[in-house]
User: Fold O-antigen polymerase superfamily protein from Bifidobacterium subtile.
Amino acid sequence: MGHFAFLLLYAIFPLFILVCYRNSVLDKIFDYLSSIIAWLALSSSILWLFGPFLGVLKPNCTFPDTWSDGSLSSGEAFGYYGLLYQLQWSGFGSFLGFRNTSIFGEGPAFAFYLIIALLVELLYFKKYKLWRVFSFIAALVTSFSTTGWILALGIFVAYFYCKSTISKRARNLIVFIAFCLFCAAFSVSHVLFASKVDTSSGAIHMDDFKAGFAAWLSSPILGNGIGNNDAVVPFMSSFRDNNTGFSNTFLFVLATGGLLYFALWLASFWGYYRAKGNARWFGLFSSL
Assistant:
């Protein structure tokens, strides 16, 4: 029943978004989405600065936690005002401390919503709100998600290239600079990835890649069943015990739905490329 409900949701949700778009309701939905995530990003960034980073604020709440590396032996994660919890450690250069995960279980999960909100703010709305963009960037930086950093850079490049009124020469210069920054960011992320592999979290992420690829090869065309996480579990390493969650979305799509399911995503992005105006961004958000 769970898999059927997932398929039903996948089929109905784009139609729901289409109805909202045609009735001019989508703007309000995206505005609420961007505003909520912006306030969450701003508050969690401030709490992270004065809490885990500077140590001015002390934790004043707890949350049951049995799986993340930030939890103590008591099985509880400490938090600040219910808006930020100490759930994940991260090392960057000489810094070693908790990531800004806000109310989410890990930094990449928080970064995912920040990226969606940044997309909405810069590429969907005709005029962005600076405080929201600042909040998203501050939270992305403190989440220490290298994937989030690279995607944010890509969003800014898309904004300046597609929506800015600057000259074509300036646009090309921005693209060149962005390419250099992307190469630098890729190098940094490679170093960070190499250091993370030695940790339990890094080992699990690497095992997710191997398990997902092996599961996809077992049924490359049709996949093993959309949303069927159990099909990937047999390919996971034994050291993971009961930690059978999956973190690699791209390979999870291929492993469970195969190339046939992945073709639907490609069709959505192709439609996004062919569309014009706000309809282009509507197609992109429907894909996400």
User: Anything to note?
Assistant: Strands lie at 61-64, 76-80, 84-85, 89-92, 95-98. The radius of gyration is 20 Å. The first strand starts at residue 61 and ends at 64.
